[in-house]
Amino acid sequence: MPIDLLLNNISKYIHLTEEERSIFVDYLQFKNFKRKQFLMHEGEVCKYSAFVTSGCLRGYTVDKNGIEHVLSFAPPDWWMGDMYSLISQKPGILNIEALEDTETITLSKTNQEKLYIAVPKFERFFRILTENALVANQQRIIDNLSLTAEERYGLFCKRYPTLIDHLPHKQIASYIGVTPEFFSRMRSGMLRRG
């Protein structure tokens, strides 16, 4: 059941009583997105974070030349949102799109604030999520500056093992910061070398 996946995700960081679970579930909404449907566009204010129960989301930006740069993917058991916009309530920088039919459980910014008062443990949970995201983003910047494309692809495979054979190669290429053509040549070379 989708709610069980979310509760298991939360239980990695905090323990909830039955009453606290019930309070939490009351603040949630279930939202489904069709393939290529957007949860948000760049310039909009992010009003909620989404937990993926099936399908896959991607967060990306588009530069002034119209080139997409994928910042993150959210397969099942991952959270997605424009963290800058969600926290600041200013216009966001991300486009968040469903790569396939995707089921999510969402928590609005308003309900998240209410949840902190009703079940204070959730402040700890979301602090941990935010800290983990900050560390991962910093490491990603360092990796992009210091590692080869092959090494970045290796890290992608470790981070998103379920997506390796699931995503179009152009999405993976964008995530690791290379052109689809370069990615194709690189993968061919890697396969030849074993």
Automatic annotation (TrEMBL):
GO terms for molecular function: DNA binding. InterPro entries: cNMP-bd_dom, cNMP-bd_dom_sf, RmlC-like_jellyroll. This is CRP-like cAMP-binding protein. It holds the Pfam family cNMP_binding. SUPFAM superfamilies: cAMP-binding domain-like.
